[in-house]
Amino acid sequence: MNFANPIWLYGLLGIAIPILIHLWSKKEGKTIKVGSIKFYPESETRQSRRLNPSEFLLLFIRSLLIAFLVLLIAQPILIGKKKKERPTVLIESSLLGEDRMGSILDTLLTGDYSVRLLEEGLPEFDPESLDAQKGVGSYWNMISEIEELASNEIIIFASNQASAFKGRLPTISKKLKWYAIPPKAPVQKILSASFVNDNYYLVRATFREEATEVERLNFTDLSQLEGIQSKSNAGEVQFKTLEQEDWVSSKRPGSTKVSIVYGPGFSLDAQLWQAAFQAIEETNGIPMDISVTSVDTNPVGDNDILVWLSDALPMASQAERTLVYRADPLNTSLIEDTIEPKVNQITRRLSLANITAEDVSEELLNALWTDVEQLDALAANDQRLIPTTIIEPTNFGNGQTAGKEIQAVPYMYWVAFMVLLALERAVSFKRKQ
User: Count of domains in the chain?
Assistant: First the structure.
């Protein structure tokens, strides 16, 4: 038997209280003064130290009352055997098309298992449909639904993709076993391609278990490509890697108009920011029309990007994106988001001393040229894994109660306690104790 509040079991020591009271309640005989005892016969006097049957009954009832009260406060939990349910196996749908899952599925389908898919709603597995689905949702959202399953033992086969661990870590009462099925080998894919001034610019990603690496390639001769296939289609050059199925067409991006406006004392900053934009143009194949002017010339016009380098407030602008200098020495990032839409904050000034330490071009690229298609491709092909040892959901059950049914204390225990209490009062009244 288990107890909800086992600390109260120390109260069983209180059983000694009525025993001590009964032993200490034996008093010496009372002396009564009389005029003469001349005519009283002599007799031997002695004091009885034994308990008569009625005193023993009262002592037993009071000790039993204390024991009952302590046990009821400790709240005993009755655990009985529960009907055994079949273990449920959850398989990530993106793994169904892999050869490694073939033997596992054969074993599960021939065994006594309930097989479901690890996706929203946890649908039952259909052997007739083995098409792998691309992309994985949130593991935590799907696992939180297992509380509705009848099985107490849940077995999960998943790829453990880091991008799928979104949301709050769930709390479950089921017994969970998690098995990771990692990818076989790294995969390379072309995310985007562009053609500017007779140069080709490619963004290639390498997806591994440990990390995802993104590199930018720049070349003019297609024969220089290694591990990348190319072909001409309708006047466009298309690229793909050996592992990739879809071809990626090279685009001819339009020119981005950048206006850098500087105030008094910011002329060097303006030159350094201009150099950063030029570096992006050369290495990433993004055509730019860059202008550098001072605040005094009232230069603000129609721009794609406005960089405001002044302590004064920026002028009204129709620019798509705006970078405004606002000193923030506690911020570690050079470019920070703000609550204003399409406005970024430049947190510190640039100088010849810190320009080598600041990765200005990289921060600019991440802040202003976010390619949604590239982000979607990175998320869909992400193979980074999370170790199984650190992803176990919080379990508030325990091994002793798994597969068992927990019942509350029957109300008859309270009825027995009240009957004993009434019996003790009756015997005590009769004995005048």
Answer: 3
